[in-house]
Each structure stands twice: as C-alpha cells, then as structure tokens.
Amino acid sequence: MHSPVRFALVLVVTVATLFVASVPAHAEDPGFESLFDGKTFEGWGGDFGATWRIEDGQIVAGSPDSAAPRNEFLATARDYGDFELRLEYKLEAKEGANAGVQFRSVRIPNHHEVSGYQADIGPGYFGALYDESRRNKLLAVPAERMVAAALAGGIDGWHSYRIRAEGKRIRLELNGVETVDWIEPDAGIATKGMIALQIHGGLVGTIRYRNLRIKPLGAAE
Question: Please, is 125 exposed, middle or buried when counting C-beta atoms within 10 Å of its C-beta (0-12, 13-18, 19+)?
C-alpha cells in the first residue's frame, strides 16, 4: 500500500521529468540565438535552386548519385566579428568527402567562391583551420591524438563543432575536444565577416548542418 506522501513525491518527480523533457534543446545556452529556423533560408544567401535545400529541419547539399560540380557556399546576410558559433554536421560521402564552415569571410565578386577562415570537415582535415581563397593553406592542423579523441565514436553520424573568434584568437572544438587554438599573426586579416556553410566540389554524397546557434561576444565577454 502506498502512503500519500510517497504518492505525492512520485507525482512531483514525474511532473518534473515531463517538464525537463518539454524544454527545447539548447535552451540552457544563455545569450545564443538561432541562425536557422529549420523551415526557411531567411537571413541566408546562396544557390537555393540547384545546391541547397531543407530537409527535416536541416540544411542539406549534395547527392549520393553525382559529384558536386564545384565549391558552393550558403552565407549569412549579416557579418559577425567576435562570437561563439555552435552547430552540428553530418557528412555522408562515397567520394571527395570534404566540407567546412566559413567565418569572418567575404564573397569574391562575380565568383562562386568565398574568402576567409574555414573550420574544416573531412578525412585528413577534421578540426583543422584552413584559409579559403586567401592564403590557400592550412593555418593550424590538430595532432592526430586530438582528432582520434574527437572522433572516437567514428566519423559517421552527427558531430558537434564549436567555433570561437575573439580578436586575433581563433579556437575550434570538435565533439568537445579542442583541436585548434590559433593567434592570427597578420594584422591585415579581417576580424569581421559572414558565416557560410560549404559543400566541396567533387563530393559524392551529402553534407548536413543543423542546430546553428551563435552568441556575439562584446567587450563585457
């Protein structure tokens, strides 16, 4: 036989559990705002007709039946300077497995490319910092042990990426493992620009992005 006190305790715990389950994901991240509403490309610009599409609340590009003809980028209409960006990606590829997240970047006039920093995605490049269409080189490459720790569960499925840019300091974190802590030595490199999602030319498969959230960092941060 259950006592009234015990019944009340069970009821409270049950209600509390239901409440926690009903809280939207990432609601615990104060100061973050969503970059993608899961339904439209509002606030973004890119090749919506042939390259980018929305599926199940995800931003998707690519096909398992054909290779991406060239690099394409879906870019924010707004520029960001100091910020922390959090997102998740899923890379499924038969060939040419590569993608990335641009930041502090600009579109090259009359061209499909963009120029700026890229948090790289792909075998041999996971968690690395690349300079796209500017210096055209890897700026920082994580040690193999770091990548192994970040991808201990395998490269398939969803992975979290954290990009934090503060002044000249750039930090990348893949699945909770910091892979890059870079101090930009060139005073001429821009510290503000758009954020863009990449599908790399030659990719046979799909790249998916979801849960894109950003927190602008001000002087108080």
Answer: buried
Residue 5 has pLDDT above 70, yes or no: no
Q: How many domains does the chain have?
A: 1
Residue 189 domain-assigned?
yes
Q: Which residue type sits at 60?
A: V
Q: DSSP letter string over 111-145?
A: SS-EEEEEEEESTTTTT-EEEETTT-EEEE---HH
- Residue 24 domain-assigned? no
The alpha carbon of 107 is separated from its chain's Cα centroid by a whole number of angstroms, namely 19
Q: Is residue 16 in a domain?
A: no
The pTM of the full predicted model, rounded to 2 decimals, is 0.86
Range of the domain at 104: 31-216
Which of the two residues, 18 and 192, has the higher pLDDT score? 192
